[in-house]
């Protein structure tokens, strides 16, 4: 019998992980990347004896596939993806592929904002409670690579809308939808409905035995829920109203009740993650833990001692009574809104970079009430000037992290916060958002 041919498009973390698992499962594997492949991934593919190509897609080597696993970064409009679809060759995501080969249960977390934080917090709670649990998806090590080499009983997966678009048979045992706000609309014909429908794929294939956790306060979620048939048990969370079965906030105390065991209560001042948006993130993780019937003491302890991920509202230093915060992961306007909302002092805001057609309107009120100066860091800051010239007295242009930090240092007074929260991608001056965050931190340490 001829071996099935599996072609992997994109040789990043998910692609190389898929190749590893496919090879273990006896496929004839080929990896193709339209760009250059990073050295560590080339080394990994060579060690696996998997053939690959870079800087091109060779049709003859790809269009003979039985099935194709595509990196989430490649849009459905890419010529090679179109050619595969025309030939009727199935194109799936790494997550879809990996799930076929594991009996492990999954907690899948999606949303426009907060998913990395919520995924990490949920993983932290489950691991501390003694579950045999892995962490993957859009974060950390590839899910497929772990299915090939580990033996976890649970996985907490961060799932982006791009991944969901290529998931068909996959089912989440516990699905979490945090929020739906405009992001990546360029991949969805600039239609909010298309993007929302993509996010809602998180509940596909769920049955009455499964769980769906969502934010009752989120407008777009409410809209799409009216058009979606949900079979799973649902647990909403809200900070505006009392929820019988789920989580709510009352007198600065979170209440979580799943009616499987006793109610969990916790003061928001005891949460490791501060700020309104993090109350939502903590509630979502708390419901997951309660649904899995973990002990209240364990959940409280984990929600109190969690350390947030790097580059997301990360405390860097306090110098001359000015606090420096690195939120380089804020690559869209919404993330910057959350960052500003969580800071309780006057702010010198460092922002800018590659603007994805941003609409800055939603930031105007917060900027007017909290921001004393904006330090732009990017090659073209025209749109930031236009957006905020009436709201802030000082807007300065800078062209490096060093320069931006120096300028911010001189603009900040005692008790202020210098916040790097760019609202833009980083590719004009930096390799990626991590590089931008690291350069910011290094510049702060030099002060």
Percent of residues in beta strands? 15-25%
Helix content: 25-40%
Tally of alpha and pi helices: 17
Count of discrete structural domains: 3
Please tag this protein with its features.
single chain, 447 residues, alpha/beta, Rossmann fold, UDP-N-acetylmuramoyl-L-alanine:D-glutamate ligase, Protein-Tyrosine Phosphatase, Chain A, 9-stranded mixed β-sheet, 6-stranded mixed β-sheet, 17 helices, globular
Notes on the structure:
- This protein is an alpha/beta fold and 447 residues long.
- The protein has three domains: 5-92, 3-Layer(aba) Sandwich (Rossmann fold); 96-305, UDP-N-acetylmuramoyl-L-alanine:D-glutamate ligase; 314-446, Mur ligase, C-terminal domain (Protein-Tyrosine Phosphatase, Chain A), CATH 3.90.190.
- The chain contains 17 helices and 20 strands.
- A nine-stranded mixed beta sheet has the order 7-8-6-9-10-11-12-13-14, with helices on one face.
- Strand 13 (253-257) and strand 14 (264-267) form a beta hairpin.
- Helix 6 (115-128) packs across helix 12 (296-305).
- It starts with a strand and ends with a helix.
- The mean pLDDT is 94.
């Amino acid at each position: 019998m001829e071996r099935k041919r599996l072609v992997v498009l994109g040789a990043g973390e998910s692609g190389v992980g898929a190749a590893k698992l496919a090879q273990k499962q006896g496929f004839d594997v080929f990896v193709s990347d339209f760009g250059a492949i990073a050295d560590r991934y080339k080394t990994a593919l060579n060690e696996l004896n998997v053939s690959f190509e870079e800087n091109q897609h060779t049709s003859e080597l790809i269009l003979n596939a039985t099935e194709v696993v595509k990196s989430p970064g490649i849009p459905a409009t890419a010529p090679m993806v179109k050619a595969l679809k025309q030939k009727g060759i199935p194109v799936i995501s790494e997550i879809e592929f990996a799930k076929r080969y594991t009996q492990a249960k999954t907690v899948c977390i999606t949303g426009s904002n907060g998913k990395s934080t919520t995924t990490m917090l949920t993983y932290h709670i489950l691991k501390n409670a003694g579950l045999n649990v892995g962490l993957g998806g859009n974060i950390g090590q590839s899910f497929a690579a772990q299915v090939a080499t580990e033996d976890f009983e649970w996985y907490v997966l961060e799932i982006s809308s791009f991944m969901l678009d290529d998931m068909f048979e996959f089912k989440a045992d516990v699905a979490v939808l945090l929020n739906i706000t405009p992001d990546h609309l360029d991949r969805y014909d600039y239609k909010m409905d298309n993007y929302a429908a993509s996010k809602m794929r998180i509940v596909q294939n769920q049955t009455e035995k499964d769980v769906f956790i969502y934010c009752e306060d989120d407008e777009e979620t409410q809209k799409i829920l009216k058009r979606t048939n949900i079979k799973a048990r649902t647990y909403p969370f809200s900070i505006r109203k009392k929820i019988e079965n789920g989580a709510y906030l009352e007198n600065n105390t979170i209440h979580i009740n799943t009616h499987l065991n006793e109610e969990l209560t916790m003061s928001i001042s005891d949460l490791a993650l501060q700020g309104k948006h993090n109350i939502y993130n903590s509630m979502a993780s708390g419901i997951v833990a309660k649904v899995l019937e973990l002990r209240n003491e364990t959940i409280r302890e984990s929600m109190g001692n969690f350390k947030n991920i790097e580059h997301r509202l990360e405390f860097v230093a306090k110098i001359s009574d000015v606090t420096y915060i690195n939120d380089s992961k804020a690559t869209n306007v919404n993330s910057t809104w959350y960052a500003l909302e969580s800071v309780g002092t006057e702010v010198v805001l460092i922002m800018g970079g590659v603007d994805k057609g941003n609409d800055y309107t939603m930031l105007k009120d917060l900027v007017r009430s909290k921001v004393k100066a904006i330090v732009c860091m990017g090659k073209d800051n025209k749109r930031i000037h236009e957006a905020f010239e009436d709201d802030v007295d000082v807007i300065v242009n800078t062209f490096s992290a060093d320069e931006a930090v120096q300028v911010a240092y001189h603009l900040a007074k005692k008790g202020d916060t210098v916040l790097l929260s760019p609202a833009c991608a980083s590719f004009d001056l930096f390799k990626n958002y991590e590089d931008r965050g690291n350069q910011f931190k290094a510049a702060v340490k030099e002060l």
